[in-house]
């Protein structure tokens, strides 16, 4: 039996980080429950005080095939390098300079949305196809692969 996977991010600003990852992956904010037309309306009806309305957020794959990403506010900041990270497959099927050009274009786009570039690893055949290490707006590492 297979299982669904949700990827959870501890963070300081769930709304902002979920917006970044929605942009990075082509995801969308998860719809509010029931017949509510907005999250503000739903949270108001649930009695969630305004100061707690950014305690969590989630984004989903609009096609329903990718994992849900859940963002939860925690009091502590990021402490160390991630032991698990996302690889954003931004150049599938491309090799060599074409691959690196596609990754560079995606890196530039994501930097405009708050990411930071860390370093580039050029292709080193036969096993390394090249990738770019980045961080999201809260410093979580990911790779453009």
Topology:
Elements: E1 6-11, H1 14-25, E2 28-29, H2 39-45, E3 56-60, E4 68-73, E5 86-88, H3 96-111, E6 116-121, E7 131-135, E8 141-144
Parallel strand pairs: 1-4, 5-8
Antiparallel strand pairs: 2-3, 3-4, 6-7, 7-8
What does this structure look like?
- By secondary structure, this protein is an alpha/beta fold.
- The chain is built from 3 helices and 8 strands, in the order βαβαβββαβββ.
- It has helices at residues 14-25, 39-45, 96-111, and strands at 6-11, 28-29, 56-60, 68-73, 86-88, 116-121, 131-135, 141-144.
- It has a 4-stranded mixed beta sheet with strand order 1-4-3-2, covered by helices on one side.
- The two termini are 29 Å apart.
- 21% of the residues are buried.
What features would you highlight for this structure?
single chain, 145 residues, alpha/beta, 4-stranded mixed β-sheet, 24% helix, elongated
Main sheet record: 4 strands, mixed
Average pLDDT figure: 94
Structural class: alpha/beta
The ordered string of helix (H) and strand (E) elements is: EHEHEEEHEEE
The neighbouring-strand order within the major sheet is 1-4-3-2
